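If you are new to this repository, start here. Below is one unmodified record pulled from the training split, so you can see the exact layout before writing a loader.
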Amino acid sequence: MIYEVLLVAYLIVALLLIGFVLIQQGKGADMGASFGSGGSNTVFGSSGSGNFMTRTTAILATLFFAVSLFLGNLTANRDSAEDEFEVLQAPVTVEIPVPASEDVPVVEAASDDVPAAEDTDVPDGN
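And here is the target side for that same chain:
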């Protein structure tokens, strides 16, 4: 149960970390904002978002590494279930012997009433 909860938390932290890294401005954008370019009209001001974004990214990165280490420890101590594709041996088949009287067809003795193929008078087409 804890393993599944940690996997969901791990996914959420990873997505948030990716989002915060993509939202951040590069180091060169601060220089332009300080001289009054259009970048200074942001929600947090020209340098206000730096502290918030940097701290949030650092916290998310720490959580990401901590959860991944904990999940790795849980996974290393977990017994793995055997997959059917890992065992590639031929299945053991058990054949049930059939009695000899059932698998041999019974042929009745031919009677003398049936004429042989060469004794019949079949008219030729000639």
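Two things worth knowing about this chain: The CA atoms of residues 113 and 119 lie 12 Å apart. The mean pLDDT is 75.
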